[in-house]
Amino acid sequence: MRSGTYQGKSEDLSVEIRLEAEDEGKPLALSGDLFVGGKFLASLFCHEPIADGTRVFGPISFRGNSRLFTGMISVQADPRGLGSFQITVDLEGGHQDHVLGRLEWQGSPYRRISIEVDGVAGQPYFDSYLSRRGVRISLESAFSDAGIDAQVRVDSFSNTPHDEELRGYTYAEIHRAMQERRDVQIDPGRLQTHVFVCSYLAERNGRNVLGVMYDFGANDLNRRAREGVAVFGQHPMFSDPRVPDEVRRREFVYTVIHEVGHALNLTHSFDKGRPAALSWMNYPHLYPLGAQAGSHHDGSNEFWRGFSEGFDEHELRHLRHGTSREIAAGGFPFGVYEEGLSSIFEGGVAQPRRTSLMSNPLRQSVGVELSAATTRRSYQLGELVFLELSVRTAVGTSARIPDALDPSEGFVRIVIETPNGQQARYVPPLRLCARSQQLALGSGAEKRSHAIPLFLGANGPVFTDPGVYRIWAELGGIDGDKVAFADPVTVRIAMPDQKTAGFAETLWDTPDLLVPLYLQHPLSNETAWQQLEEIVHRNKMDKRLDHDAWSYLNYVGALGWLRDFNVPGRRSAPMNETKALKRIESIDPRLLPLSAQRRIRAVEKGEAPKTRQRIVTRPSEQFRVEIPPNGLFGQSGLDVPGVRDDVVNPFAIVVRSLDDSPAFADIVTWNIQHLHGTKKEGRIEKIAEYMLAFRCDFWALQEVGADGVEALVDTMNVNGDLVYAYLVTQGRDGEGLAGQQSACIYRTDTVSVRRLDPAGYFENVIEVADTKGVNKKREVFPRPPLLCDVRVKQSSSKVFDFCCAIAHLKSTDPKLKDKGTGMRAAAASELARWVADLRGNGAEQDFFVMGDFNAEEAQQGLAPFAEAQDLRLLSIGMKKKYGTGEDGAITRFASGRLLDHIVVTQDTLALMPKDDLQEQIIIRSDIEVSGFTKQLTGGGFAQYEFSDHLPVAARFILGKDRD
User: Fold this and answer.
1) Is 353 within the bounds of a domain?
2) Residues 6+ apart with CB under 8 A from 497
């Protein structure tokens, strides 16, 4: 008999039989689904089928029906594919019942699937890539190799937000987009999944997310679990112009297949105890160790060398022989199989009475304490239960923990015991596929989670019965393979009165109502939201002071008005602070989680900074809104293959086309402010996340020390997908210098840096007059500049080669008569002399001088730069934007002064492509960054969360090589 699918019928019983055989006809596996009247009845599986001529037979096990256990099956067919089947059911007392019917071969695929792809204009879509074996791999070919006929339809990518920003999407917006964009015409003969390609996930840790399998199981708006997945086109894997085109194509196709695998109920390889699987369902960077890999481990190269573009044998068994309810959208929620716990094929979640993966008590971390708490210990029926976690290190202990204290990212695991004594693992409605960020916790430090919404899981509402619940929480991935366990939390659900019971039952019996509350946005389903408000008022829950329904509903409503909401094909619903504040007035904060209370207080007090998209409650949230995950500049100024339709430019200047493949470099200068000695405590992780978000090639830093830069680079290398290196200013003897110095941090994949010898320069001393007219000798460079020879090479063969001086000139000094202008002018002259001398030697023609010049204009000491024949300030042309002089700076100091500069040689400008000189240097100056320097409580440098300066960033695009 041939491999493939057979359809059979016997009176009201219809069967679908799937036979897997080797090329020589030896059967490997046989499975089937049984239906009566079109409704699922049971599944069967034959582990060891036997071939006898044209007949295949063997013992079977039934699945999915509590009345069916074991039996036999026999199928036969002639070369045309016509034949018969016999299914035998074992009965009590040794009896058997036989059902016979006709059988006809339907084709070689075991299953068929329709994959619909929708997306936002400007996002990439790659349909295939060339493997290491020289084979063209596509969605169709990948699933065909698994025995699945995949029909892929890519719809037109459209509906860019009207504000012309490649903005991020929230969970609520993604879910709404899936509902509105998917094809309502469903082919009953095919499995269905919908892929939505948008920019990036606008949630915490969202820039690390490649994709998400996003659906709500029994509580989905259209009752179709695992139908929708999202892929994020601005993730650096897909959109960083430095990444070779074929690698981007490979990573994109891999992610789509991986997420569609989730939609077919395949879990991660490492979640099933198979971290060394060379499978579409693994994480290449975790290969072959899985979640126990250390923070510096990256097995991507090893994975791709061995990967042959396929699923592993267990996953193939699941895809080919799992039951229709396990596979199809609208079937079981993610990770749930016919027995309710795990599949004999896929592995699923842990079996009962077995130690869960990454939960071995023998690996418990001694120095890390995990604690869990709910807002209250007693709730009314229908109230929304949240769990908040805290991770604390003991004094004298430090550790690295996943910065992912949410069950959707896989490191936090929660078990809930119901009042009747049954225990079950909490399964969140969504699962993120992301590289987890690592957070360093020093001695006695603490990390708190956001409020985890336990009231809704993939299987529906959770706390549905009065009585006592117990909640256990654990955190894996501590220092790679350690785990921490929290003491159980007890929650009591009170016996309800009639109105409370009626409200709760209506809430749970109408699944649409819980989704906007979980997604924290009314516009995720406007109809359901209006219905929810009506039910609250009808049951007079808005008058209850002991029930959180009205307060939390208003909190979610307020959140909805605190940011724009993008509805595909329509104008975005804009944020409305007035409506948000009106909602907040109706909230009793005591009924809400602590994280919600803090957010409400920030908005009420006017402490929440405003951005173009929303009001945020912490300065560190702002760059997550403003900077997409593919970097500060992204594709700006470059034509990137694979991007569908026209890319909408979020920046002020863009070059639509350039001849050949241009060389380019993204360069930043930034005074971090006191990143040295003990003054760096508590800021390293924030600054590292900020710099990783920029994804720029070369950073020139001021006011740093070797200790701070080393800690910063270590944190960047742990948390990012790139490797960074650094240089710090040295003394004449080659030893490090104390106090604030200059440094550079650079990407090792695109940049190489060589330290230059300062011999013969930067040792000059001048006389300056103090306010009393007394002359004093001062060093022109109390902080020596860092001199570097830099080569930036992208995926093309072209190189951007330049020399640079990273300088921090004398600040304004009220004790001096000229307030330091003479010292800055002398420093500028010496830097100009250094540039002129080295250019005269002919070794290099392109020079940068960058840093904190502590001056706004030429009259404050920068005249040597403005007057030098070979030098030019990049801030020329910024007069209209900032009202500065033509030689002013291009970014603001926290005080409002303009102090930071980049100076370039004229030849560098001359080498730009000739279309339009100003368009070839793209200065990112439109980002709203006032929150970065928002003053916190206290004085001194500690009043700033990041720094008292803002970074100056520029992209340089060269049209031809410079040797």
Assistant:
1) no
2) none
**pTM recorded for the entire structure:** 0.81
CB 228 within 8 A of CB 194: yes
Cα distance between residue 355 and residue 352, in whole Å: 8
The C-alpha torsion from 518 through 523 and 529 to 533, rounded to 10°, is: 100
Q: Distance (Å, rounded) from C-alpha 520 to C-alpha 170?
A: 10
> Which amino acid is it at 364?
Q
Tell me, what CATH number does 44's domain have?
2.40.128
Same structural domain for residues 94 and 123? no
Task: Indicate which CATH number applies to the domain containing 796.
Answer: 3.60.10.10
In one-letter notation, the amino acid at residue 89 is: V
CA 439/CA 424 separation, integer angstroms? 29
Residues 319-378: pLDDT tens digits?
999 988 889 887 887 888 887 545 556 654 434 345 665 577 777 888 899 999 998 899
Assigned domain for 628 exists: no
| 437 part of a folded domain | yes
Query: Is 344 among the domain residues?
Result: no
Quote the distance between the C-alpha of residue 809 and its chain's center: 39
Q: Which of 493, 528, 543 corresponds to the end of one domain?
A: 493
- Residue 8 in contact with residue 104, Cβ under 8 Å? yes
Interaxial angle between packed helices 549-561 and 577-585, expressed in degrees from 0 to 180 and rounded to the nearest 10: 170
Choosing from 439, 462, 493, the residue where a domain stops is: 493
* The two structure tokens encoding residue 553: 């509903």
| d(C-alpha 808, C-alpha 826), whole Å | 13
User: Structural domain tally of the chain?
Assistant: 5
Q: Range of 892's domain?
A: 663-755+786-809+840-856+868-958
H/E stretch holding 827 reads helix 821-841
> Per residue in 180-226, pLDDT tens?
887 767 787 899 899 999 989 887 778 889 999 876 554 554 456 78
Give Cα separations from 284 to 201, 267, 433, 631, 696 (angstroms). Answer: 21, 15, 12, 22, 24
Cβ neighbours of 897 (radius 10 Å): 13
| CA end-to-end distance (rounded Å), the chain | 67
